[in-house]
Write a structure and sequence with these properties.
By secondary structure, the protein is α/β, with parallel strands linked by helices. It contains 14 helices and 20 strands. The protein has two domains: 178 residues, Leucine Aminopeptidase, subunit E, domain 1 (3-Layer(aba) Sandwich); 282 residues, Zn peptidases (Aminopeptidase, 3-Layer(aba) Sandwich). The longest helix has 26 residues. The relative contact order is 0.11. Bound molecules: ligand BES and zinc ion (ZN) (2 copies).
Length: 501
Amino acid sequence: MKLRAVQGDIMQQPVDAILVNVFEGAASPGGAAGAADKALHGAITSLIADGEIRGKRGEATVIHTLGSLPAKRVIVAGLGKQASFTADTVRAVSGDVARTLKRLRVGLAATVVHEAGAGGIEAEQAAQALAEGTLLGAYEFSRHKSKEEPAKALELLVVERDSKQLAAVERGLKTGAVIAEAVALCRDLANEPANHMTPTVLADTAQRIAKEHGLEITVLERPQCQELGMGSYLSVAQGSAQPPKFIVVRYWGDRANPENAIGLVGKGITFDSGGISIKPAEGMEQMKGDMAGGAAVLGAIQAVARLGVRLNVTAIVPATENMPGGSASRPGDVVRAMNGKSIEIVNTDAEGRLVLADGICYAKHLGLKRVVDVATLTGAMGVALGSVRMGVFGNHQELMDRIKAAGDATGELMWQMPMDEAYKEQLRSEVADIKNVGGRAAGSITGALFMDYFAEGVQWAHLDIASVARTDKVSGHLVKGHTGIPVRALVRLCQELAQRQ
Ligand code: BES
Ligand code: ZN
Ligand code: ZN
């Protein structure tokens, strides 16, 4: 799928399909849809009157032009209600349309930037949302399928009438493509089966990304992690035949100001069997995606580097499998994290917090003062918030506010969860400083509070993405499988932090 901005009149494009839009409840089509309606002798108006075109989001009506326009078809896509029209709508509609084009095997299509003027959205922002939606809505993870037919290459012309707006449209498309490619990278890594995405493969992929985009990279091997005292992280790795890889990627967007920085720590469990506290068989295959947080921070740093954001960003991915091998850690074992705190491992399935504890300590070791971690941490997150919003936790209100604002701006919605000290009672251990589980009650909160012991002294926010990292539905820019959430929110956060310097 390729996107290209061109100046001209959409009605004059000799393409397989032109895309026009109508709002829900509109009696007559406006803008490009109005022009297409005229050329089609009122066909759109008449289909609206008949009730076939209602303008609902997700609706796509194909009209064959039979020579009345240079284009072979007009596709009328519904935008939903005008009152709720935002950049999120543009992204969603573009995703739906991209799949319609694929299904119709359209090779070359043309669209306008959706209602840029009338919808109250800037052309650049609308073009960015259009690119994100189109590229991500057409996303497929099919590399393990023996192909019957190769997918047809699709090109979408984004036609802008006003020459003065063309540069803005081009900029938006470019930014959108960079962000969509970062989200697709995250999806690819998380969708990949665990036998193909081992810690070693993840580290090699990070090496490739770093090389391609001029990023600094260090991969710490087990002996180096031992030397650093990462007993908590290494305890998770000890039951696996796969060697752990502690991945650190750095982008220097503002070298002159080393303080202008953020650390992004992503949970990198390439497969979570639960360890000795083994998970039930049903659904365990989904645990190949337990490195979605790690994949998200790698996607985010790639986009931030390509966009040249003026911020120093460090992505840290403590990667390992969680397996029940003969040398696996046992319930009741006590280990020590990099900051010297001792941990009683009561449940080996609460491994995410064990690897993140040392991940956050390492961010501090690098001198970072601001850290956001991203993790498929607790099943309890889905009980609390379902799959609409992810939970935000942390020790610094301003950082949490900024990340929530980035979530609102990108449609990757979040909800702040409580962090009362009183919950820490549940983590008290008889034998060590703390234990790694706090019982069934408030499971996501006690998971976050466990990490609070390691985030002391830094501004820290934690995103629990367990219930939003993957989806079974196909809608808008999201398709079945991994969503790539919260790559777009993380990139937005970095852009916002950079601007405020
Ligand atoms: N990776 C899981 C959390 C998870 C569950 C992610 C479902 C995505 C979907 C995590 O390591 C885990 O097993 N958490 C336990 C914690 C419990 C033992 C305190 C859980 O949620 O049950
Ligand atoms: Zn687990
Ligand atoms: Zn896990």
